[in-house]
Structures are given as C-alpha cells and as structure tokens.
TrEMBL record:
Pfam families linked to this entry: HATPase_c_2 (PF13581)
Coiled coil: none
Organism whose genome encodes this protein: Alkalihalobacterium chitinilyticum
Histidine kinase/HSP90-like ATPase domain sequence ranges: 23-124
Protein name as annotated: ATP-binding protein
Entry superkingdom: Bacteria
Length: 139
C-alpha cells in the first residue's frame, strides 16, 4: 500500500495487492482511536475497510486502479471512507434472492449495518463508493 497523498484532513492510499487491505485496516483503527472512537467503533471501521476493499479486489480486474481515501470529518466527528475503482456501477442493495445463499454475499449488508451514510455512484470513468461513520456520543 502506497500513501499517495497525506494532508491534515485526509489520506490517500493505492491498493495494489490484497495484503494492502491489512495495512489500511490498521491505519483506520489507529486514526479512529486517535479521533476518540471507542474500540468497538474502531473494530467496526476495520471490518468496513476489509469488506469494501476485498469487494474491490474480488469484483474488479486485478490490474485496475483502486484508491482508498480516508478522511477526518471534523464537524460530524467521524471518518469518511471513499474507494475509487475501475469497473461497473453496482448497487448497495443486492436483490433479495441473494440473501444468505452460499458462503459469501453478506459483505454489503455488513457494511450498511456499520455505517451512517453509504453511496455508490459513477464519477467520470471511476466508481466512487463513499461511506461515513460518526463517532458515538458516549465515551
């Protein structure tokens, strides 16, 4: 995983191989704890990063670009995860007939249950998946 850009409010990572996902998970955990997320929330953010990035590797061409932007959201006391990939637009709400069939296919449901905002849209030649998690008020 290469850090492409680092600013005070955001970090851009190039995901080149699946093992880069572990580095992104570790980074988001450290950032979340530093921003005051509790350990359970930090773990949830790690799961979201794992599912989001694993889906990118599993459902796009292995040579296609994958860039993860991790951004602090000061006013809402949260973290935004934005993944840019090459590939086809997909829905965050899979059809009902895919529910609980086989050993896979629960990742999007998990992601949606752990974040406060989720959106997928085409942006130029890329697919932009944006997720946001607010920090709880309880500490």
């Amino acid at each position: 995983m290469n850090i492409l850009k680092h600013k005070d409010q955001f970090f851009l990572f190039s995901l080149e191989v699946k093992s880069d996902i572990l580095n992104a998970m570790d980074f988001v955990k450290r950032l979340a704890l530093g921003l005051g997320f509790n350990r359970k929330e930090a773990l949830h953010l790690q799961l979201v990063v794992e599912e989001l990035c694993t889906n990118a590797f599993d459902h796009t061409d292995r040579c296609s670009m994958k860039v993860l932007k991790i951004e602090k959201v000061e006013d809402q006391k949260g973290i935004t995860l934005t993944l840019y990939t090459e590939g086809e637009l997909y829905s965050l709400n899979p059809p009902k007939e895919t529910d609980n069939k086989g050993p896979r296919g629960r990742g999007l449901k998990l992601i949606l249950s752990l974040v406060d905002f989720a959106e997928v849209k085409a942006e130029g030649s890329f697919i932009k998946t944006q997720l946001m998690k607010k920090r709880s008020q309880k500490h």
